[in-house]
Write a structure and sequence with these properties.
The chain is of the alpha/beta class and 204 residues long. It has seven helices and six strands. InterPro entries: Uracil-DNA_glycosylase-like, Uracil-DNA_glycosylase-like_sf.
């Protein structure tokens, strides 16, 4: 199940795809990638909590830079784009540890440069449900952006969620204007602060 990437950081991740906390999740990714014409679905990051996650950070779809990684792509907070840089920075500020979190996209396969449509979200929903079923310790799902929230709510309406979680939503940090980006970052900061407080309280 090896993957390669030019960055030493990502080379290290590729060597740990089958570590116990991500083995089952990445086995699913491998299945989704198999066969002619199958989509490129990024690997789960072994530097996250994997199947032990208490918080799922659910975003929209892989960024163009992630798509360019091809078969070596990871769904990772370490990906070098503005959204992930903002997420990492705010998580560090509010004390939300990656050891409690796993990141995923409501449409996990690479799309053309556009936002996911309802058709994309519905087609990917079985993969979202399969991922949620592999997160037995999950307590909170953070829907980042409208497509992520739509995917979750449509799964709720269909009665497909395999567990009970706190569902919270926040705008996607990648916004078209500077003012909207500032507002989105403020909302994200507030949301992740509440999530970090919940995790800390539960631990205490």
């Amino acid at each position: 199940m090896a993957a390669t990437h030019s960055s030493p950081q990502f080379e290290s991740k590729s060597e740990r795809l089958e570590h116990p906390h991500v083995a089952t999740l990445n086995a699913m990714v491998k299945q989704w990638r198999e066969g002619p014409g199958s989509p490129v679905v990024p690997w789960f990051d072994p530097d996250d909590a994997g199947a032990a996650a208490r918080v799922l950070i659910l975003m929209e779809s892989p960024a163009p830079a992630t798509a360019e990684m091809g078969a070596a792509a990871f769904c990772s907070l370490d990906n070098d784009d503005r959204s992930n840089r903002t997420m990492r920075s705010i998580m560090a500020e509010v004390g939300l540890a990656r050891s409690a979190c796993v990141k995923w996209n409501v449409v996990p396969s690479v799309l053309p440069t556009r936002a996911p449509t309802f058709a994309d979200i519905d087609a990917a929903r079985p993969m979202l449900i399969a991922v949620l079923a592999q997160l037995p310790a999950l307590e909170v799902v953070v829907a980042v952006g409208r497509p992520a929230l739509h995917g979750l709510t449509r799964a709720v309406w269909a009665g497909e969620l395999p567990g009970l979680y706190r569902l919270v939503s926040t705008p996607h940090p990648s916004q078209r204007t500077a003012l909207a980006a500032i507002a989105a970052a403020d909302r994200l900061h507030s949301t992740l602060t509440r999530v970090a407080e919940h995790i800390a309280t539960a631990e205490g």
